[in-house]
Inverse folding.
């Protein structure tokens, strides 16, 4: 409970020190890069070098979910978890090849700017701005929650306090430094988060694969996969490496498509490409970014495999030493705190802190004082009813008995991942509200100082809303996230793509396409998950009637519908005016003002 | 004007080729064919892992990195012409 107390464990002292140092660095950078113009505030003056923008994009892209949850998800889903790896990186390829260079050439500040001008329509601009705000808010609340969880687990502070500290941090470097402050803190945050992810993975790889320090090679060449398959089959889960155990082929296909198309349309990553000096720099910074991202994304599956093996191996047949009834922080809920030791009789200390954080529970149902990790009919573990996926990355260093400073480093990395993404998202929210909506419609003649002030007020507003949802998260987070991805896939991606590659696409076509994509995707997701998101409804309105596709993957169908409708309607409506055709010509030209320089 | 049209055509060809590789690796090898890499009844292995599993969790990501850099290099080359 207390944030400042004398009863700190070595891990907590290390965490305190690391978090303190990194936060001081973020504050220093935010202060050094304070800005005076809107161009600096929204796009960092367009003077960011390609490789620095690559690192910043990677940090922006990799959220608390990539750092904390993804390896846990893969660890649980086995081979089918690959969709998240391929989906999030493959979507980036689409973004780099089809969108980023042209939006950079267009050269204004935001995605709604592009949509509004290309489709000569104020309605299209408003729709794009609202979609951008919705998608970004959904995401940022999750990041704030991530900050709260790290604080509560590693410093035993209440979640609300962690969220508030996170809000103050982001406010400091985003409000003062704008995009410039965010960019340079993101560069630093990338290096912190990648170190924090790689160090434990390397150490565990050495432990489990007979001394191989490269996790990617260790998982491939050692017999860890064979051992894990044997253990997993024995417990009733089947081979870890077998595909289509948790999803069928069609659903894996659609989920992969929806993740890719949705990722390519995420506005906070698109705007990062506005910050570099030229189209050529945008292409190279995309290359650096995916290289930096791939470092984490190829390590994650190795970590997932090692963690699965370690957790099953240490918990299955662990002996129950003691069971105490304890009360949670709310003073009401009671639970059983288990003290365990492994097969060789060594105490398993790590299980206690995670039980206190309510992310892990045990229940010795058959009373034999031995924990069984066999598969139940529902697919869970027989005597560990709750084993939260999020603890896989955070607990792995403890499970593997690593030093306290490594554990503290992981906590610091999780914070860096969450804060860097939150900052990028808040900037999109701010630019959508202040630049696309308020300044554009209400006060187009505002002075530079006034515009900057409106942008800052909008960021503070965004931080407060995000913090609120971080402290009181709605119970249907995963449904909302599915919706955000589906929405980005069914609206932004086809609309921007056709806007660049098809000159004939007209205002009417684009608006009709967006509406059809949005309505189809929205109705399918809400109808399928009504019992989870609308109070008082017991059952979904309808099942997965479209070929049995799950709501998470339906965005791919919405996207296709959008393409078809936009294409057809555009052929039957008046073509775009001459200025717009000229705009498209200009966006397509290679022309950098300066001759290409070496990157 | 003619130059511009030629530049755009080359750009489209390059993007199409790169995205064809992208689709074959991810949707093809990573999903549709993931369990088809077999000799008889045995999985084809890379190290100790089934080839399809390795492509889905490792190989595809390496290919994506190469594709994005390849695009940057190819466009440099086209722009020089």
């Amino acid at each position: 409970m207390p944030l400042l107390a004398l009863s700190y464990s070595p891990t907590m002292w290390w965490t305190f020190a690391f978090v303190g140092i990194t936060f001081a660095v973020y504050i220093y950078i935010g202060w050094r890069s304070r800005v005076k113009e809107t161009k600096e505030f929204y796009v960092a003056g367009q003077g960011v070098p390609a490789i620095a923008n690559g690192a910043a994009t990677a940090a922006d892209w990799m959220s608390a979910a990539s750092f904390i949850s993804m390896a846990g998800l893969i660890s649980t889903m086995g081979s089918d978890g690959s969709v998240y790896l391929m989906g999030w990186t493959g979507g980036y390829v689409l973004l780099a090849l089809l969108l980023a260079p042209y939006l950079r050439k267009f050269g204004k500040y935001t995605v709604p700017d592009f949509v509004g001008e290309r489709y000569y329509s104020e309605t299209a601009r408003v729709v794009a701005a609202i979609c951008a705000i919705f998608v970004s808010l959904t995401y940022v609340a999750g990041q704030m929650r991530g900050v709260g969880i790290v604080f509560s687990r590693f410093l035993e502070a209440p979640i609300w306090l962690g969220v508030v500290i996170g809000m103050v941090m982001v406010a400091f470097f985003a409000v003062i430094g704008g995009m410039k402050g965010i960019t340079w803190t993101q560069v630093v945050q990338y290096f912190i988060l990648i170190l924090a992810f790689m160090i434990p993975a390397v150490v565990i790889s050495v432990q489990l694969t007979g001394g191989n320090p490269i996790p990617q090679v260790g998982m491939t060449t050692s017999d860890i996969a064979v051992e894990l398959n044997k253990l997993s089959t024995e417990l009733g889960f089947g081979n870890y490496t077998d595909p289509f155990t948790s999803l069928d082929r069609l659903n894996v296909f659609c989920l992969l498509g929806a993740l890719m198309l949705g990722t390519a349309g995420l506005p906070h990553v698109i705007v990062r490409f506005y910050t570099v000096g030229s189209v050529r720099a945008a292409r190279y910074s995309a290359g650096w970014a995916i290289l930096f991202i791939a470092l984490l994304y190829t390590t994650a599956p190795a970590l997932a495999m090692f963690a699965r093996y370690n957790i099953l191996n240490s918990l299955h047949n662990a002996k129950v030493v003691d069971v105490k009834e304890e009360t949670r922080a709310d003073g009401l809920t009671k639970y059983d705190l288990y003290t365990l030791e492994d097969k060789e009789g060594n105490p398993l200390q790590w299980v206690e802190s995670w039980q206190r954080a309510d992310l892990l529970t045990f229940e010795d149902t058959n009373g034999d004082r031995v924990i069984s990790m066999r598969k139940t009919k529902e697919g869970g573990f027989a005597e560990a009813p709750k084993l939260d996926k999020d603890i896989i990355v955070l607990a792995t260093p403890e499970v593997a008995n690593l030093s306290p400073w490594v554990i503290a480093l992981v906590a610091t990395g999780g914070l860096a991942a969450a804060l860097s993404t939150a900052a990028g998202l808040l900037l999109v929210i701010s630019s959508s509200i202040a630049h696309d909506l308020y300044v554009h419609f209400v006060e187009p003649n505002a002075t530079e100082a006034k515009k900057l002030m409106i942008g800052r007020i909008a960021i503070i507003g965004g931080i407060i809303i995000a913090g609120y949802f971080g402290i009181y998260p709605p119970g249907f987070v995963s449904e909302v996230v599915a919706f955000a991805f589906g929405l980005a896939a069914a609206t932004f991606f086809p609309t921007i793509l056709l806007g660049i590659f098809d000159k004939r696409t007209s205002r009417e076509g684009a608006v009709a396409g967006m509406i059809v994509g949005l309505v189809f995707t929205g109705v399918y997701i809400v109808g399928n998950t009504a019992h989870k998101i609308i109070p008082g409804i017991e059952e979904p309105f309808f099942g997965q009637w479209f070929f049995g596709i799950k709501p998470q993957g339906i965005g791919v169908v919405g996207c296709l519908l959008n393409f078809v409708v936009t294409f057809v309607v555009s052929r039957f409506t008046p073509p775009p005016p001459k200025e717009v055709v000229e705009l498209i010509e200009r966006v397509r030209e290679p022309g950098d003002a300066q001759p290409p320089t070496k990157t | 004007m003619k130059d511009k049209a030629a530049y755009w055509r080359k750009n489209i060809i390059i993007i199409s080729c790169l995205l064809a590789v992208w689709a074959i690796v991810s949707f093809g090898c990573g999903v549709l064919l993931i369990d088809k890499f077999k000799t008889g009844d045995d999985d084809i292995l890379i190290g100790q892992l089934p080839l399809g599993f390795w492509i889905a969790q490792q190989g595809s990501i390496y290919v994506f990195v190469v594709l994005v850099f390849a695009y940057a290099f190819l466009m440099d080359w086209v722009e020089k012409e």
Chain A touches chain B through 50 residues (CB under 8 Å). Residues 593-599 of chain A have pLDDT under 50 and may be disordered.
